[in-house]
Specification:
Distance between the termini: 46 Å
Number of strands: 2
Strand content: under 5%
Largest sheet: 2 strands, antiparallel
Number of helices: 22
Radius of gyration: 23 Å
Structural class: mainly alpha
Strand order of the largest sheet: 1-2
Helix content: 55-70%
Length: 595
């Protein structure tokens, strides 16, 4: 079965190559169908590997297995968490291709296969990053994912704002990538290894960590934290979402940012978590501080937005903070909770972006104020947005609610942060849904305070759509049903709990990769609905509904939430500012790690 593992990456890569070579000679529909078949095949392969059993699948490409602990071969490691993320990335890529069916006004001239080819390349980068067991290969796959994402963000190259957003995305993420490469170089200089398991086992032989190892930790994590949009590395994300085509936003917020979070903890647990690595207390302190900052700032900024795509982008920033905060506890239960949260969040967030895309193409705007009451004619779409807002707020039995409940049980202070952040981001979506689909509240005039209102946007379809294309709404509904299934299928929660145990097992990972020994079988944590978890989910959903109602009918009572001028000015749109914040973030991470 290990021979099937590389196909999860190879199938979309080959599909992209074929579309790039022959796409111009194919009808557009044929190219889209072929791309969808490739994405679906990779999804099925990942699902088949997941169903095979709990033992990790290790595949040394070309038979270049280690000799005396040394290897120059490329290794893919299909443990439960990595395979799950690869399956999620492939499934969401397939959903995006269905959503994009004859979506854009016109493909690039003479290259009708370009868009599905880039989606397949993006999928291959994400799947490869999730499965690789080698740090340098992880960097290569991450950069492949990044380069394609820059191009997809600036897909409408004739628009100045799209090019600017793509450049900002590219510059900031490239800086993060260079930092990671420097860190990988330091680790290679220290251990002579590039494999995660080999580096981790070699570091285990050192008596304690030193400044070089701390520098490597900071540099490697900088690139991953940039991609995961953690504060203060997050500035590129809202700007990119504001200009990227809607299907691309579905992938960026639905799975790419989560892939960055996965990378942070995959690298920590396999490389730095041993006795000669970075002490857990140091790493926990750094990631907890960044996580709390990210969650609070993202939620506050989410509430400020009237541009619907930016609102959802800041919501992603806020939830990234929650993921970091809980995962920094380094416990299997918190890890299992966040894995469920990520699955539910991927379906919910992608569905909300899909709905925003329908509004853009129907009305040429994603401005909450300008759309006041105009979408009353789309009650089903409004229902989907409202349900998505409640899911973001952690309403049971959605997967976001189950993941939130399990994570909250991992540490006493977490429920306060999780309830407040979930409620505020859910409230922002519910407020927008009430204003746009019900015409609730009084119409607001443009006060000129928000330069990125979302009005006057170019539709991404050929003209404004009069009847909403069925695939666009069907994909949004299916994604929300998927988020619901995450919270209501006990077998899935049990599988995630078992995966979380092996994900945090530093020695077990090295034994599986280097010694072909199966990891131990410690008892998985109890993962499921509990009465406190259900009550906290209901509380955060109720707070979200109350905040949204106050914003619509008693705005003076929530006016203090809008007094965040300094925070808004930080999002300046200038690449130089963002580069400075990236450098400052590296310094902050170093100080927090070496405190």
């Amino acid at each position: 079965m290990e021979r099937l593992l590389p196909l999860i990456v190879v199938v979309p890569l080959l599909g992209a190559a074929l579309l790039a070579a022959a796409g111009r000679h194919l009808p557009r529909q044929a190219g889209d169908t072929f791309g969808l078949l490739c994405a679906a095949t990779a999804t099925a392969l990942a699902g088949a590997e997941l169903a095979r059993g709990p033992r990790p699948v290790v595949s040394w490409l070309g038979g270049w297995t280690p000799v005396h602990g040394h290897s120059v071969g490329i290794v893919l490691v299909g443990d439960r968490t990595g395979l799950g993320l690869a399956a999620l990335a492939s499934l969401l890529s397939a959903a995006v291709l269905v959503y994009s069916w004859r979506y854009f006004a016109e493909p690039p001239r003479r290259t009708p296969g370009a868009f599905p080819a880039m989606i397949l390349l993006f999928q291959a980068g994400m799947a490869g990053f999730a499965l690789t067991g080698d740090l340098f290969d992880a960097f290569v796959f991450f950069e492949l994912m990044g380069v394609v994402a820059y191009a997809l963000t600036g897909y409408r190259v004739e628009a100045r704002r799209a090019v600017q957003g793509g450049l900002t995305f590219g510059v900031v993420n490239s800086l993060g990538g260079y930092a990671s490469l420097l860190g990988i170089g330091l680790l290679y200089a220290r251990t002579g290894q590039l494999g995660m398991a080999q580096i981790g086992r070699r570091l285990d032989q050192f008596p304690r960590h030193d400044a070089v190892l701390t520098a490597a930790f900071v540099l490697v994590l900088t690139g991953l934290l940039v991609k995961s949009a953690a504060v203060p590395f997050h500035f590129w994300l809202p700007d990119a979402h504001a200009v990227a085509p809607t299907p691309v936003c579905m992938l960026l917020s639905g799975v790419m940012v989560e892939t960055g979070v996965y990378g942070v903890f995959r690298v920590y647990h396999t490389v730095f978590a041993g006795p000669g690595g970075v002490p857990a207390a140091d790493a926990r302190r750094a990631l907890l501080v960044l996580g709390v900052l990210t969650a609070v700032l993202g939620a506050v900024m989410c509430w400020q937005q009237r541009h619907l795509k930016r609102l959802l982008a800041f919501s992603t920033v806020a939830h990234t903070g929650l993921f970091l905060t809980a995962l920094a506890l380094f416990t299997p239960k918190a890890t299992a909770g966040i894995a469920l949260y990520v699955l539910g969040h991927a379906g919910t967030k992608a569905a909300l972006f899909a709905c925003a895309g329908v509004l853009l193409d129907r009305y040429g705007s994603v401005d909450e104020h300008e759309l006041h009451g105009r979408a009353r004619e789309l009650p089903f779409l409004g229902t989907l947005v409202a349900v998505g807002g409640l899911a973001l707020a952690g309403l049971p039995p959605f997967g976001t609610g189950l993941g939130k409940a399990v994570a909250e049980e991992s540490a006493t202070p977490l429920p306060v942060l999780f309830v407040l952040v979930s409620a505020l981001t859910g409230a922002a979506v519910l407020r927008a849904a009430g204003r746009v689909f019900l015409g609730a509240g009084r119409p607001l005039t443009d006060d000129g305070a928000d330069a990125t209102s979302g009005s006057g946007e170019e539709p991404e379809t050929e003209g404004e759509v009069r009847a909403v294309p069925p695939p666009m709404v069907a994909v949004a509904a299916a994604l929300l049903l998927g988020a619901l299934a995450v919270g209501t299928v006990p077998a899935l929660a049990d599988a995630v709990a078992r995966a979380a145990v092996s994900f945090t097992d530093h020695a077990g990972y090295a034994a599986a990769v280097l010694d072909a020994r199966p990891p131990g079988t410690p008892s998985p944590p109890a993962v499921g609905w509990t009465l406190p978890g259900v009550l906290l989910g209901l509380v955060s959903a109720a707070v979200a509904v109350a905040l949204a109602a106050l914003a619509l009918y008693r705005p003076a009572l929530v006016a203090p939430l809008r007094r965040t001028g300094p925070l808004r000015r930080l999002q300046s749109g200038h690449i130089g500012d963002y580069v400075a914040w990236t450098a400052a973030g590296m310094g902050l991470l170093a100080v927090l790690t070496h405190w």
